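As a warm-up, study this chain.
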Amino acid sequence: MGSPKAALDWHGSTLLRRVTGIVARVVTGPVVVVSAPGQTLPELASRAEVVTDAREGRGPLQGLAAGLEAIGDRAQRAYVSSTDVPLLHPRFVEYVLRRLGDDFDVVLPEIGGYRQPLSAAYRVDLLGTVEELIAADMIRPAFLFERCRVLHVDGEAMLEDRTLAAVDPRLESVSNLNEPADYERARALPGPEVQVRRFGPLARSDTPRLQTVRAWSLGEAAAAVGLALDEHIVAALNGDQIIRDSQVPLVAGDAIAFIAADAGG
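Now compare it with the structure written out below.
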C-alpha cells in the first residue's frame, strides 16, 4: 500500500479505528489489536487493547497466537479480522461467531472461491496448537485447518440468513484493500444509509424529525443534518448507549437519535 494500512484515513477516522469499532459492537469480550514490533498505531477506542507480535513477518498465525494469548480466559471464541476491511458489517461478525458451536474449532467463510482466514471465528483454546505449528515453522493457516475441526461456510449459505443478506448482499465484509487503487475505489463509495431522528429541542419545526442520510461515522451523520457532536448534543446508536464520539463507525441499517445533552443526555 506504500504506508501502514492501519492509519489510512477513512472519512475522518482510520481503517483500524473503523474495523475495531465495528467488531466492538458485536463482541462482549476484549477487542485486541496485534501490532508489529515497534509499530505506531493510530488512536483507538477505549475498549481496544494492543499487544505486539513476538516476531515480525511470521504471517497470520503469529498474529493469531498473540491475540489468543491476550484474550486468555476472558472469552472462549474470537472473531479474527484484518485491518483493511472497511465494509465489514456487524451482522457478518455476528453470523460467523454464531456458527461456532461445540462441534467445531473454526468457522471459515469461503467467498468467491477463496477461504477467508482473516474473517473467521476461532476457539481460544486453539492457542497451543497454533504455537506448536509456529515452532515447527508451519506458519500457513492451512496447516492449522488440517489440525482442527473446521466448519466451511460458503457465501451462498451465508446469504440464506435474511438479516445478513439485507445489509450485506454482496458479502463485501470480506473486501480487503491490497493496493492504492483498491483504497481509492473504496473511499469513493457512498456512505451507508442510516436513519437519523432528532429529539427534544433539536426537533425544530423547520427541520424534519426523521431523515435518511449517508454517513460512515457518527460525526458524518450529525453533519449531514446540520448538527455537531459537542457538550450540548449526544447520540444514541440503535437505541443503545449514549455516545458523543464522532469516530464511532456506522453501517447500513443503523438508527441514530440525537438528543440535547441537557434534555436526557
